[in-house]
């Protein structure tokens, strides 16, 4: 039986606390991403794969529907595979389909896209 202050209990507390911090950070990241998706690309937000690492990585490089359309599925797929994202092909297709379904630029798109984005062939 473990008691507070036991050597093993103290040693286990550090990795357990670290794991909780990582899980909380991931939840905060997803919670910040959802409102941006709702404003910029609602069709991708409805995707069931939103919670995976690939969707988050995709949106760090391609922040607007126009950027996703310009890059195309093959380019995005390669970009994701180079970053070791599983399911890159399906995610790239889903993102491009969502971007093609939304041809209107929404308010707030430009500020959301500000900053560094992934290079794509037409830029």
Explain what the structure shows.
The N and C termini lie far apart (62 Å). Helices cover 68% and strands 0% of the residues. By secondary structure, the protein is mainly α.
Which features characterize this protein?
6 helices; 123 residues; mainly alpha
Radius of gyration in whole Å, from Cα? 19 Å
Distance between the termini: 62 Å
Q: How would you sum up the global shape?
A: elongated
Overall strand count: 0
Low-confidence stretches: 119-123
Largest beta sheet, briefly?
none
Average pLDDT number: 78
Oligomer: single chain
Helical stretch count?
Answer: 6
Structural class: mainly alpha
Percent in strands: under 5%
Topology as a string of helices (H) and strands (E): HHHHHH
Approximate helicity band: 55-70%
What's the topology here?
Elements: H1 7-40, H2 42-45, H3 53-61, H4 65-82, H5 88-101, H6 109-113
């Amino acid at each position: 039986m473990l008691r507070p202050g036991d050597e093993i209990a103290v040693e286990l507390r550090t990795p357990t606390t670290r794991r909780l911090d990582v899980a909380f950070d991931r939840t905060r990241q997803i919670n910040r991403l959802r409102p941006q998706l709702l404003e910029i690309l609602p069709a991708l937000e409805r995707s069931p794969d939103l919670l995976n690492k690939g969707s988050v990585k995709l949106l760090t490089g391609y922040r607007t529907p126009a950027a996703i359309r310009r890059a195309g599925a093959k380019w995005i797929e390669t970009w994701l595979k180079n970053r070791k994202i599983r399911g890159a092909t399906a995610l790239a297709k889903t993102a491009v389909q969502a971007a093609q379904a939304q041809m209107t630029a929404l308010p707030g798109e430009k500020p959301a896209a500000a900053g560094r984005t992934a290079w794509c062939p037409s830029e």
